[in-house]
Write a sequence for this structure.
């Protein structure tokens, strides 16, 4: 696995005992990282959520409540391959997300469409608000 090998190479210069522990932890965790099923809100291993919503019936702004309690910085579209009718609508961010909602507009042809997305917010920013990333 290239990603695991790359991570192991980063710890190559650590003291032998420390390197052994980190290598075992990486080998135990990395192969099992998953977003999890789309129909389960909280992701299995990541700090984000899966949300299913519907675009507005016109090209005006619509909002989606996300429940993170902080502004998300990432939205990734996703398709549930076990559900017919899911689409990847063409969306545009109409204004920055806040601690409770995402603000979007759908392009013509993408109105009134059910879609799924993964959103993620920077948890550490809530813990260390004065640190810049």
């Amino acid at each position: 696995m290239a990603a695991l090998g790359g991570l192991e190479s980063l710890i190559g210069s650590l003291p032998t005992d420390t390197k052994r522990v980190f290598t075992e932890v990486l080998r135990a965790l990395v192969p099992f990282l998953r977003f999890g099923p789309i129909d389960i809100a909280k992701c299995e291993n990541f700090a984000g959520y899966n949300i299913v919503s519907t675009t507005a019936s016109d090209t005006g702004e619509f909002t989606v409540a996300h429940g993170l309690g902080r502004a998300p910085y990432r939205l990734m579209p996703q398709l549930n391959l076990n559900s017919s009718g899911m689409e990847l609508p063409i969306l545009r961010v109409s204004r920055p997300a806040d601690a409770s909602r995402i603000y979007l507009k759908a392009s013509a042809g993408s109105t009134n469409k059910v879609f799924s997305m993964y959103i993620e917010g920077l948890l550490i920013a809530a813990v260390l608000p004065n640190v810049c990333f």
About this structure: Confidence is low (pLDDT under 50) at residues 124-133.
